[in-house]
Amino acid sequence: MTQLTRLDPSHLPAIITLHHRVIADLPPGNAATETDQFFADHLDACGQIFGAFDGDRLMAYCVLGLPRETDPNFGTDHHLPPDQLGKVAHIDGVAVDPQWRGQGWQRRMVEHRIEIARKCGRTIALSTVAPTNFPSLISTVSTGLAIHGLIAKFGGNRFLLRRDIGPDQDAKLPSAPDRAIWCASDDLATCRKLLDDGLIGLFCQSSPHGTAPRIGWVPAIPA
């Protein structure tokens, strides 16, 4: 099986090229358009980038953000107290060449970044996903990142996702209970109401014919 390897500055042109190739195929607002400097910084200064190759061709990459004290931090969107911001890891952008989609790369890359974040001493994994980016939403939620919020960010609506990944956290993913409340991911009015009622989106089931997946909502467990 093709391995994920940590990328270095020599890979920057290939990362940028793949990013723009994938962004061009997505509806507006489904993914953030990143700057070249964003990728350069995340190769070392404030994160790590991992990739998979077919020969010399980069077929997928994923960005792990390890924000420093002065860097933007997804934790502020979750209203984390200042003493927790240093524990945050960003499960940030990904891109998979269209030729290699449908092989489980997105989920695998989330799991890989969570493991690296743990090794870096981070205990809170945070991510953002557009409600209409169905493949990314299904993959991300399937790895245990739960929806805790919904805001305007990166040029569109974004779910705010969180998973606690400290050494004392249970790595076993739960099964959907009978009590879960289900709604479509693009039914934003219902999603907002359920969030306001204190629920989190812990499950995500794909729907047929490319329609919006269904999110399963359950009461949040106090941190």
UniProtKB/TrEMBL annotation:
Write out the coiled-coil annotation as residue ranges. Answer: none
The domain of life is Bacteria
- Please name the InterPro entries in this protein's record: Acyl_CoA_acyltransferase, GNAT_dom
Instruction: Report the residue ranges that make up the N-acetyltransferase domain in this protein.
Output: 2-166
| The protein, known as | N-acetyltransferase domain-containing protein
Q: Which organism is it from?
A: Thalassospira permensis NBRC 106175
